[in-house]
Predict the structure.
Amino acid sequence: MIVEKHTMTIMEMLVLRARLRLEIAGLSGGRGPTALSRLRKHGYRGQRLKVLADLSRDIDVTLNPKLAAQQ
């Protein structure tokens, strides 16, 4: 899933990916919504590992548009 509405900047995506990795490892980010719940509001669905894989793919495509042509 590529974020077409441009509602998330690349920095937000990178921060949420780092927070999601911490959540998978068992560390909480403190108060407030989890990274997974914030990503679900942006349309990502599935378990944590699937969301992490989808988000990482979207970050790679955003940073290197040539990857989108290969898929």
Notes: Residues 10-25 form the longest helix (16 residues). DSSP finds four helices and no strands in the chain.
